[in-house]
Amino acid sequence: MAAKTQVYRWDFNVFDFAQSVKGKPLYNVTMALLQDQGLLDGWLLDRPVVEAYLTRVESMYKPNPYHNNTHAADVTQTAGVIMCALDARLRYGSSDGSASSSSSCCSSCCNVGGGTVGSKLANALACCTLPHAKAAATAAVAAAQAPPSAAAGNPAQPPQPLAASGGSPGGGLAKLERFAIILASAVHDLGHPGVNNAFLVRSRDKHALTYNDRSVNENMHASLAFTLAAEEPGLNLFARFSPAEYEQVRKLVLDMVLSTDMDVHFKLLKAFEDELASAPDVATWASLEQRSLLFQMLVHLADLANPSRPWHLALTWAEWVVTEFLQQVRRPGRGGHGMRGVRGQGRREASCGLAVSDMCNEAKVCMPAAQLFFIERFMLPTLEAFRPAAPAFYRLALPWLGDTRAKWEAFKAGGVKLPRTGYPALPPGGEAQLCAVLEGSSGCTCSASHAQGQVQEQQQQVLARIGQQQ
Ligand SMILES: [Zn+2]
């Protein structure tokens, strides 16, 4: 289980952690949060049932390049951090509560030394094999030597430790609410097939038929989570809940998981902003619908938060998501209909190999632009919108988001198509999948001789798809 001093840190390295817990990061992160929030003992949950449930949940995450159990652990840990900030806001009003001495939160949470980022970045990019990438990396390393400044804004204060865990009646978040947030985060991509809703609909996937083309993945994730508890022996998390408690948790969790569908992103932000306009102080939001809206935004923000992590983490996540996307683009549709330019699995495997690795890496032309698009279109607006509800998290995340943004801008300006982390490696099979996909593509987007118009056209397609996928 993650130590309490780790589970609220913003530089929490979920990749290292996954290795240290032998590939079970979701189980361990979730148990640590439940434990720290006082939900495992002396409350409604039965610890052995929770352990069995989370073990089963973790096993049902597929080894996708991005939507895997490490991503679920990352989102759950992120939600835990944001939850601290929201709780502080609810308890202490417009102050972020960071000065509270009664906090039971770890004193070291969320402190990230800006001076260490440069060396980590240098290590991360040392493996880059492309000359132009090295030049841009040098510039990025230089930029990282200074503490992150807010390119996306200008917070006056450095990141502060976040506020208390725990909870008190009439004060911050109720235990039932904390549990709902943690559970929703843990299951929010349960059973994710590694392709997005649009693909499932176009390929007439069985889940698209089941859920009538609407939030297909998200409906499936939520349904799986509750079906496990209801039908599998020994996994009923809710056995001790009253009907009313179960009803409330179920509503909140369903709302939160369904809100992670990017198709409802703008609708969710508008609903949140409209509610804020009529009731500016979120501490007064007492109805179930208002609380649900708060938590939907929280989990949605946690799901988008990769670019606001320290650079070495943000870069790794970017690499993983692009890999999954490219894998999807070339995945054959069911029955062979509807997918232009697809390649069969055998064709992709046959074309795979390290010999094409460099070419394939260059071909990943869209990465900086795609990330900038994602930050500007989705992540930053969500962070800004949620600021009144979690000002401490805003101040924590914004400098790192600005830092990430500046680096992607530098890479883009430097003509770097494919920054490489080199750390940690892609998930098992990820590198092979990426190379095979790119080798098999009809037009390599990275070629220096490639017509600029074609590059831009392909890049725009990728940008749109990347935006849909996360
Ligand atoms: Zn997710």
UniProtKB/TrEMBL annotation:
Protein name, per record: Phosphodiesterase
SUPFAM superfamilies registered for this protein in UniProt: HD-domain/PDEase-like
GO biological process: signal transduction
Domain of life where this protein originates: Eukaryota
Gene3D superfamilies reported for this sequence: 3'5'-cyclic nucleotide phosphodiesterase, catalytic domain (1.10.1300.10)
Enzyme class, first EC level, given as a word: hydrolase
InterPro entries: HD/PDEase_dom, PDEase_catalytic_dom, PDEase_catalytic_dom_sf, PDEase_CS
Tagged with keyword Metal-binding: yes
Coiled coil: none
Organism: Tetradesmus obliquus
Keywords of the record: Hydrolase, Metal-binding
Family annotation (Pfam families): PDEase_I
